[in-house]
Amino acid sequence: MILASMCRMSIVTLLVLLVIAGICGAIGNAIAGSGTGGFLVSIVLGFIGAFFGTWLARQFELPMFFTVNVNGEIFPVVWSILGAAIVVALVSIVARRRHYA
């Protein structure tokens, strides 16, 4: 479904979504207290955070608020930020354990 959706979207829509995901990932990264990675890492974190955050919201039956609609594609900004922060925190905990072991 996502692949079919990406095939239909324009380059401008994809670029706008990448920028939004990058900003959300950077904010989530900053909330978790990790300053590592550049804008590409932030973009990946933003998309992973969007998937993970949206999944968590559905599991707890929480509403989708503050979403951005870009040419028919909806991006959950708040859940992307929170999901990215959780993912960064989990990765830093695992990396810290591996470092001290």
Description:
By secondary structure, the protein is mainly alpha-helical. The protein has a domain at 35-101. It is built from 4 helices and 2 strands, in the order αααββα. It has helices at residues 2-8, 11-32, 39-59, 77-100, and strands spanning 67-70, 73-76. It has a two-stranded antiparallel ribbon with strand order 1-2. Strand 1 (67-70) and strand 2 form a beta hairpin. It is globular and about 40 Å long. The model has no long low-confidence stretch (mean pLDDT 85).
Spans of at least 5 consecutive residues whose pLDDT stays below 50 are: none
Total helical segments: 4
Query: What profile does the largest beta sheet have?
Result: 2 strands, antiparallel
What is the helix content?
Answer: over 70%
The residue-averaged pLDDT reads 85
* Order of strands across the main sheet: 1-2
| Helix vs. strand class | mainly alpha
Annotate the secondary structure layout.
Blueprint: H1 2-8, H2 11-32, H3 39-59, E1 67-70, E2 73-76, H4 77-100
Antiparallel strand pairs: 1-2
Brief digest:
The protein has 101 residues and is mainly alpha-helical. The chain contains 4 helices and 2 strands.
Search tags:
two-stranded antiparallel ribbon; 101 residues
